[in-house]
Amino acid sequence: MFKGKARAYTNIALIKYWGKENQALILPKNNSLSLTLDGFYTETEVLFTEEATKDCFYLDGVKQSEQATKKVTTFLNLVRERANCPFFAVVRSHNHVPTAAGLASSASGLAALAGACNQALGLNLAPKELSKLARRGSGSACRSIFGGFVEWDRGDSDETSYALPIDAQGWEQELAMIFLLINDQPKDVSSREGMQRTVETSAFYPQWVKEAQADLHIAKEAIQHHDFQKLGTVMEANALKMHATTLAAVPPFTYWSPDSLRAMNLVRSIRQAGLFCYFTMDAGPNVKVLCQKKDIAAIFEVLSSTFSDQQMVVAYAGPGIELLEMDVTK
């Protein structure tokens, strides 16, 4: 019997990953840059045992279907091959993140699973190697291995595609992100499906890849110089360009809802009034508002005119993956 448990936090991409160069290895078309946050996280424990006759996956205490377990098994097969482990596993995952709602639950979930497997089977992977492994489960999971600002280098092979932290000299501690939870239900078009459709059919996609690389350079400069307005401006523009690619897909689709648009317009009006804040969105309707800690109270007050307190969650820069003690009574 081999057991391990880990906690990984969500990361929100400021410069987006959108599109794969290699589906099997999950190699992206472009580099991306994220901020790991403390507001949402996943805790996952894994138990490899000769008593198990197949892999079992429990999410928030509920045993998942064979289809839902398939993705977990695919990842476990990679780990078993690496560790020469013949046993099936029982995986128990608790999401402190709404699942499949565009709040990076797959990033924290697969990063936590990678960390738990690393501990359980004694793989002793260094963070960079663990990032490569997590990437094979979910692309953005490679970034949740690290805290603060993180860049995922797309690379061109399994060995060269991984994330590494960006040293911001602690500047990330001055920032915050307000999550506007517009909808926490699973999306109609999954990230994986939407991404593939966009790459294959969107007339806007080739330009997106070029723009993303330029945006990344601007974002890294902004972080180096602690330039909040520059970072927020390029983050917001990058998100809008990503979502524009979905409107040109065949058939077209969008992750926006009417409340998403209300939120974006509200952020713009707050900025016009002299409070600097900027929005971003991933593959879902929820809006994330990047701001400075010193402005949280004032921005929160304006947002609360449209959104309830239950819809707003404030998060700060979070840590990298953490190993936890497993409850041996289970």
Automatic annotation (TrEMBL):
Organism phylogeny: Bacteria, Bacillati, Bacillota, Bacilli, Lactobacillales
GO annotation, biological process: isopentenyl diphosphate biosynthetic process, mevalonate pathway
A GO-annotated cellular component: cytosol
Ranges for domain Mvd1 C-terminal: 178-312
EC class: lyase
UniProt superkingdom: Bacteria
InterPro entries the record matches: GHMP_kinase_C_sf, Mev_decarb, Mev_diP_decarb, MVD-like_N, Mvd1_C, Ribosomal_Su5_D2-typ_SF, Ribsml_uS5_D2-typ_fold_subgr
Chain ranges of the Diphosphomevalonate decarboxylase-like N-terminal domain: 8-163
Gene3D superfamilies: 3.30.230.10, GHMP kinase, C-terminal domain
Family according to the record: Belongs to the diphosphomevalonate decarboxylase family.
SUPFAM superfamilies registered for this protein in UniProt: GHMP Kinase, C-terminal domain, Ribosomal protein S5 domain 2-like
Protein name: diphosphomevalonate decarboxylase
Enzyme Commission code: 4.1.1.33
GO molecular function: ATP binding; diphosphomevalonate decarboxylase activity
Coiled-coil zones: none
Keywords for this protein: ATP-binding, Lipid biosynthesis, Lipid metabolism, Lyase, Nucleotide-binding
